[in-house]
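Repro case for the chain-ordering regression, as requested:
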Amino acid sequence: MNTQPLGVFDSGLGGLSVVRALWEVLPAESIVYFGDTGRFPYGTRSPGVIRRFARQNVHFLQSQGAKAIVVACNTASAHALPELRSTLDIPIIGVVEPGVRAALKHRKSGRLGLIATAGTVASRAYEQALEAIDPGVAMSSVATPLFVALVEEGWTHTEATRLIAEEYLRVFNNGSFDALILGCTHFPLLRPVLREVLGAGVALVDGAEATAHATREMLSKRDLLAGGGEPTHRFFVSDAPEKFATIGPLFLGRTFDGAEQVSIEEY
Amino acid sequence: MNTQPLGVFDSGLGGLSVVRALWEVLPAESIVYFGDTGRFPYGTRSPGVIRRFARQNVHFLQSQGAKAIVVACNTASAHALPELRSTLDIPIIGVVEPGVRAALKHRKSGRLGLIATAGTVASRAYEQALEAIDPGVAMSSVATPLFVALVEEGWTHTEATRLIAEEYLRVFNNGSFDALILGCTHFPLLRPVLREVLGAGVALVDGAEATAHATREMLSKRDLLAGGGEPTHRFFVSDAPEKFATIGPLFLGRTFDGAEQVSIEEY
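-- result from build under test --
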């Protein structure tokens, strides 16, 4: 048993959707969250830069007493997880492998699809995770960077968004796909338009819930579960803490007290 | 006369459109360009962070021998110009005031419009510049963050882009606007769709050319013009130098040798 907080980081506030899932699955756990809003977005950056950012984020969460780390950012999971695991002495879980396992549950006979940032797609991390779990299954990936900007702008239900989705998703619309992995924390907010464009035949898989279940399993195995008691939650960002009040609830599903600002370059 | 280079910086590669205008207006000047691709975009960041980035960018350009600085980034011009001018001993010119002066040339009896990033609009820098030059003229501003993402994605001519432009530009479509300032280096690439949505009655004003003319005037006044000789041009970025080869020509209007990478946090 361990009542220290679970550390969660993301490139911004989208990772709060993972916090929401963790609250559901692990209601007794305290959480310390870091959203790297000052260096958002990660999806267009190069691998070396993403790895440096990820290391600093983990160091900050460790300074806040984190007992384990959830990398809620797909791009950071894709590029930095192996290095973080090999160089740091703290349990670390990412969103990629849980997302692949969740998608495989929906598989009948067809392929899996992935939509994600350019960085995540270029990393081929999802393909590698699938290859390790079930090498017989094929996957097709499309980078959909405009989806991030559309969600940030709050345009999740406009006609323009539908046209952009039709263009991006064309490849997945031929009947040969069983499941589409939403490989970015922003994309679950686009579920209605994705459903409209893809029809009912393709399962839309959000890695957040699968990641929360994988986190519970990992904490349990290492005897790190909090047990009882009242959890406390703290939120930190590297820029514009005032946006937390307006954008946070979109992902968290509830309002929450403000976030504190951190000088992340010092970690 | 002074053959040292002119320093130009932007949050990314969009500022290369200013370099293109400088080549036209000041063909003898050598240029050293810094694109802060590792910390792009500036438009969503807070003023203190933007000012810190701008100081580092100028320090880097000074380390490369710059005799004067052109701030090609609207967001940095809007937030950092007064501080840079008051704390640094090098001539500095931004894109805001030249853009306002260029727009006023198109004015008949109506208002001026501005489209820009959220950061530039929130700064009210264009309104303040207009107030200082001609306080009798009114201006309306709209933040159009999706335009940046659409240009980065190369989607400058799609139906979705037209719908997004219609939504953003609705306020400018009532016949009372003489000119619309394109207050972000990416927006000139959207001229065709902006023209289609706004009709022929509204002048589309790009600050790049006006900034180049203002730069010539400033260099001439301080006796800093290069005179004759063959200019040399160097390009630096803080991440992903390979993108310079593909995105650079969009803004530069020609291909150019690669860019070098800089660790900008060290300046």
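Ordering looks correct now. DSSP finds eleven helices and ten strands in chain A.
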